Structures are given as structure tokens and as C-alpha cells.
Amino acid sequence: MSDLLANVTASIKAAKIIPDVIRQSNFVPSVLFSIVWPSNGTEVIVGDEIERDLTDPEPEIKLSPMALPKEDASYTLVMTDPDAPTRSNPKFGQWRHWVLPGVRLPAANIDETAVFLLFEEPTGGITISPNAAEHGSDPATRKNWDAMEFAKSHNLKLVGVNYLETKAQE
């Protein structure tokens, strides 16, 4: 299992997710997860490249905790683009796609990267104000958003990461 975790860590460092999104240079996930689009059978492990057209509708996640989660554990799942609108033109910086709090574990454009961050919530979960930027779709509230600052402000602990890169359909 440690080889798998080392491979995940090496992959997210090679993709510059550490340090561009995750500023903890020594981060090692305690939860592994894949991103799944049941409508077309696409599953992303870590860093797979897929066609943009395969990323609709919103995906599901398959979680694999490295240890049994606490009975009352809940998580917040974040999807962010670290270099919007594209890697070659990151003029908007980190772009928040969505924030999904209260996730319980069971017993993209051309040249786009999507990073999925899984955070363990503090006991009792978190509340995001209905007026918070995380509920808005206005581009002004989405560009230059910072996932790790959001996590810090809500006392969230990063436990897992996955990412994908989309490409144009040929």
C-alpha cells in the first residue's frame, strides 16, 4: 500500500498540484478515490487524461480509505482548476468548480486540469453560508479562489487528492 501512496504523491508533485494547489510539500493521502462517470463508464484513477466530452454530467466518486473512517466522519469534496482557463494561459489562477460538504463514506475545457480534493470535516460538519462565494456561479467569485485557504477557514483536513486532464475530442 505504501508504494501506491508513494505513486500518488509522486504523480501530484509531477503535475505541480503540490505546490500549486496543495502547499504541504509532505502531504501523503490517507484516502484514495477515483472519479467515475457512470453514464459512460469512464473512471479516472490519478492523473488520467480523458476527452472533455466524457466529463458530463457531474461524476461520482469511489472512496477507498486506508483505514476505517470514524463512525461519524464526513468530508468536503472540492473540484478546482489550478490554472484557469488553461495551463498555457492561467490568467484566472485557481478556479472553483464546486464544493460539496457533508460527504459520507460508505462501510473541463481543452488543456484543462481538474483537481479533486477530499477533506475530512471537523466533528459536527461544516456550514457554508448561503451567501458565501462557494454557492455563487459568478466568474468574479470563482477565479483566484484558493482551496487550501477555504479548507483552513473551515478547519478541514486534506486526506485525499485526485486529478484529471481533459483533451479535445479529435
TrEMBL record:
Origin: domain of life: Eukaryota
Pfam families associated with the record: PBP
UniProt name for this protein: Phosphatidylethanolamine-binding protein
Species, as recorded: Hypholoma sublateritium (strain FD-334 SS-4)
Lineage of producing organism: Eukaryota, Fungi, Dikarya, Basidiomycota, Agaricomycotina
